[in-house]
Amino acid sequence: MDYTKNEMMAIATGREFSDGELAIFGVGLSMLAGFFAQRNHAPNMIAFTEGGVYGSTPVGGLPWGIEDNRISANATSFTNAIDALGMLVASGRVDNAVIGAAQIDKYGNVNTTGIWADGTQPWKVGKYTLPRVRLNGSGGANEIAVGAKKYIIMAQHEKKRFVEKVDYISSPGYLNGGDDRKKYGFPGGGPSAIITNLGILRPDPVTKEFYLDAYFVFSSVEEIIENTGWDLKVSPNVKMVPEPTPEELENLRAVDETGSLRTK
Amino acid sequence: MGGMWGSDLVALRPEFFRAMKSPFDGTEVVCVKALVPDYAIIHVQEADVYGNCRILGPSYQDALLARAAKKTIITTERIVGTYRMKEEPKLTAIPHFLVEAVVELPGGAKPGICYPEYQAVEWPKHKAYQKAVKEGQVVQYAQSMLEGRL
Amino acid sequence: MYEKVMSLNQATDLIKDGMLLGIGGNGMHRTPTIFSMALTQKPVKELKICGTALGLAADILFATNQADTAYFGFFGLENEAGLAPGMRKAMEGAEPKARAIEGS
User: Fold this and answer.
1) Which chain A residues are within 8 Å of C2, Cβ to Cβ?
2) Any CB–CB contact under 8 A between A46 and chain C?
3) Active-site positions of A?
4) How many angstroms away from the CA of C57 is the closest CA of chain A?
5) Where are the domains of chain C?
6) Do residue C4 and residue B110 have CB atoms under 8 angstroms apart?
7) From the CA of C1, how many Å to the nearest CA of chain A?
8) What is the torsional sign of CA B31, B35, B36, B42?
9) Helix, strand, or coil here: A24?
10) How many CB pairs under 8 A join B and C?
């Protein structure tokens, strides 16, 4: 196998994007997946960041942040966060997006706020309590979760991350499943996939519970179930994701100039 | 919105303005219903073929209008190369993906003003407009002003 | 990026009866007058117009009775150009053909 698990994850995510979509990516792995898609099969994708940088491709390597010089160097428009997050994302204009997750549950709710000691979570105690580990917060991910027509969640597939119920909902997926999300009238449709370094999960159309849809050539259904902290259901049509083609790998590595995806 | 108190608008226009209590401290606030235009129609000085637009001089609320509307139609004094936007992207007032159509239309704001191209109203033409309104001849006035560009 | 250049004729054909149009500019400044005048040559009607400070381009559509509603904070031409003649003709009198939903 001449590619890493993270490269497979980035390519699988990039394949979920179509040409012409208005798309927003977070910094890091999600940006690599998105710009790979633009280079590989979606040249008219309109990529922008939550800092207000529209219509650019990164130069010189992965940008540090949402308004880094590497991404604002050749932008056609550069506004501000109120314009990007308020007027474009939260209003429901965005077609597709990628966000990350420190913790994720079976309804696609994402936690990037903090990790609580078990039994002390706010939803268990009934009021706000302090987390054991303080994470960075949602950033623009909440707007994306609420406003994007659909979006993908990228995460490392580990039992401690894939939990029955997150400690704290930073970015809402399908909340308590079923029709729960619809009650709130969000402009966006919710997460369309969770893509990890082991496989792809998708939401059940009725219950909105994420089930295993596909695995990679180097993983297996058993391995994925073992690394998931809830009783993961498996699709009767569970399939293997096609390996990266030489063209896809070439395009991904051209975007990933500093080789950050090739470390594992 | 604080400035609405005292005007008759809140009482007389309930389809647009409503007073309600703020959930934070119970003070009365005025809420305004949002409008979503089907199209924004905006005349700019520079646009590229993709719809990225620069507005020279005062922009009024045109950048906001383009975000409020579903899509924007642009008429422009001139079409410029995209390099112009990339030189200083902060000056791009309207990003291309909000735009559905770009029409190259020099003089598109006449007989009015469009800084810096033409900075005074063409009074003879405007007086002809005022006369046309009085006499119900605006369609004919418009036809002569279009000079065959339609 | 997709190219979007089209003729005035094609662009005005996008406007259909009953649409809500947001018109840019302010008073006599940088309003899309020629686009408006092109619309007067088409059968489009029952338009609703909105804008922060509507001016000449919007006035033309009220003068031809192609617009029946205006949402605005200000609608006028200012200074020597005065008030908006088309809008006034449509909204004043015993049988107004248009109405205003003003924000001021």
Assistant:
1) 20, 44
2) yes
3) 50
4) 26
5) 17-102
6) no
7) 5
8) negative
9) strand
10) 199
Structure tokens at B70: 């579903």
Q: Point out the residue among A77, A87, A91 whose CB comes nearest to the CB of B89.
A: A77
Judged by CB atoms closer than 8 Å, whether chains meet at C1 and A55 is answered as yes
The answer to whether B142 contacts C40, with C-beta atoms less than 8 Å apart, is yes
Over residues B31-68, the pLDDT tens digits come to: 888 899 999 999 999 999 999 999 999 999 999 999 99
C33 with B111: Cβ contact below 8 A: yes
ipTM: 0.95
| Cα–Cα distance, A100 to A80 (Å, whole number) | 22
Predicted TM-score (pTM) of the model is 0.85
User: What's residue A138's pLDDT?
Assistant: 84
Whichever domain contains A117, its CATH number is: 3.40.1080.10
Amino acid letter for position A226: E
Residue B1's pLDDT is what?
59
User: Within B9-59, where are the H helices?
Assistant: 9-12
What is the pLDDT, as a whole number, of residue B27?
Answer: 86
Among C1, C3, C4, the strongest candidate for a mutation testing the A interface, having the largest count of A CBs within 10 A, is C1
- With beta carbons less than 8 A apart as the criterion, state whether A107 and A208 touch: yes
Q: Which residue of C has its CA nearest to B38?
A: C20
- Shortest distance between the Cα of A160 and any Cα of chain B, in A, equals 37
Residue numbers in chain A where pLDDT is lower than 70: 264
Asked if A78's CB is within 8 angstroms of B52's CB, the reply is no
Residues 6+ away with beta carbon under 8 Å from A238: A212, A213, A214, A215, A221
Which pLDDT score is estimated for A55? 83
Q: How far is CA A240 from CA A85, A199, A200, A205, A219, in A?
A: 36, 9, 10, 21, 9
Beta strands in A38-190 (DSSP E): 46-48, 53-54, 77-78, 96-100, 103-105, 110-111, 114-115, 133-134, 151-155, 162-163
Beta strands A22-25; A96-100: pairing state: parallel
- Structural domain harbouring A13: 5-262
Angstroms from C8 CA to nearest CA on chain B = 6
Residue of B62, B71, B72, B103 for testing the chain C interface, max C β-carbons within 10 Å: B103
Number of domains in chain A: 1
Taking CB atoms within 8 Å and a gap of at least 24, the contacts of A214-217 are: A214/A238, A214/A239, A214/A240, A214/A241, A215/A239, A215/A240, A215/A241, A216/A5, A216/A8, A216/A12, A216/A240, A216/A241, A217/A1, A217/A241, A217/A243
